[in-house]
Amino acid sequence: MKRIYLSPPHLDGRERELLIQAYESNWIITPGPQVDAFEQEICRKVGVGHAAALASGTAALHLALVMLGIKNGDEVICSDLTFAATATAIVYCGATPVFIDTNPETWNMDPDLLGEELESCAKKGKLPKAVFAVDLYGQCADYGPISAACKKYKVPIIEDAAEALGATYNGTFAGKFGAMGVFSFNGNKIITTSGGGMLVSDNEDYIKRAKFLSTQARDPAPHYQHSHVGYNYRLSNLLAAIGRGQLEKLEEKMAKRRRINQFYKKALKDLPGVEFMPEASYGKSNCWLTVILISPEQFGADREAVRLALEAENIESRPIWKPMHMQPVFKDCRIRGGAVSEDLFERGLCLPSGTQLTDEQLNRIIKVVRSCCQTAELL
Ligand SMILES: Cc1ncc(COP(=O)(O)O)c(C=O)c1O
């Protein structure tokens, strides 16, 4: 049986045409006209002033911290429930991540715990240099209270919107809620360039500097001269062409992923012990991945049993991100709370959510999940 992947790339627009245009222009290096156009198109989509297209979302996270002058000995607050890149970018700068547990209503950073941590840091006289807020699985964090807490202590926010292009919070697009925002275009994201990322900001200085640093920090001189340490982090013109083709279809992809989410809900909601990631009332998720929680006492099997049953049918699913405080590499870092993300990790499973999924494939997946339930009367 053909393998069903979790969230594979889906090239169904003008990607090929734009890629050939870039190829035939012989402008395959970085940057170039496709990179400029891709940046402008992302700015228009998100409603943000400036953007730098980069080789990955991780590169964008790293540069955002470099831009804020994060260095050895600093602390940076970070969502506990995220992909490791958010936290490793902090370590690239020699700084230490401090993790904040998750709000069960949104699956994003708990704003109350953030407030408590900032207050305790202020009392100790050592405030973090930044807060990395993640928009998990395509849903924005709760930026009202998060921004208020950060404003109180004058700590800048960097928004890790790697998974959330197109999502909104009270009508404003993800990527707009910090001093800088980050998107990822790796192969499993809602739009992809194969690998790639974008740093966005309304502050032109940040983006100008990000472009300078991401192209090896070359001083304006005929020879190679460097007064700063730079990086080789820019996106290639060829990959930007693919990104432009993908971006043209973002709305369609979001609608398809929402439909998939609803399809699963309709087909699984009667099962005891199955819950879906909640969609917070403050915004609209881009529905990047559909994620369920399985409570073994009610369902009669745990999420690992379901994952293995799917795998046996050649269907890829994945436990939700293992929280950062549970990662061996971050075992010595501070965590405020932690029980909520531990519980979500224990019970959470990401289901295949790619935009090429057919109803037949969805039914194949649903049949396996339903067959694992030991406590319901099944068909
Ligand atoms: C929340 C989050 N942050 C950062 C990244 C890193 O992005 P990239 O893979 O483009 O480096 C990802 C995805 O991989 C992610 O999901």
Describe, in plain words, how this protein is organized in 3D.
- With 379 residues, the protein is α/β, with parallel strands linked by helices.
- The protein folds into two domains: 15-247, Aspartate Aminotransferase, domain 2, CATH 3.40.640.10; 250-372, Alpha-Beta Complex (Aspartate Aminotransferase, domain 1), CATH 3.90.1150.10.
- Helices cover 39% and strands 15% of the residues.
- The protein has 13 helices and 15 strands.
- The protein has helices at residues 15-24, 33-46, 57-67, 84-92, 111-124, 143-152, 204-214, 237-247, 250-268, 296-299, 303-312, 339-347, 359-372, and strands spanning 50-54, 75-79, 96-100, 130-134, 157-160, 168-169, 172-173, 180-184, 197-201, 274-276, 283-284, 290-294, 318-319, 334-336, 348-351.
- The strands form three sheets. An eight-stranded mixed β-sheet has the order 1-9-8-5-4-2-3-14, with helices on both faces.
- Strand 6 (168-169) and strand 7 (172-173) form a beta hairpin.
- Helix 1 (15-24) packs antiparallel against helix 8 (237-247).
- The longest helix has 19 residues, at 250-268.
- The two termini are 23 Å apart.
- The structure holds pyridoxal-5'-phosphate.
- Pyridoxal-5'-phosphate binds at residues 56-58, 82-83, 85-86, 134, 160, 162-163, 184, 186, 197.
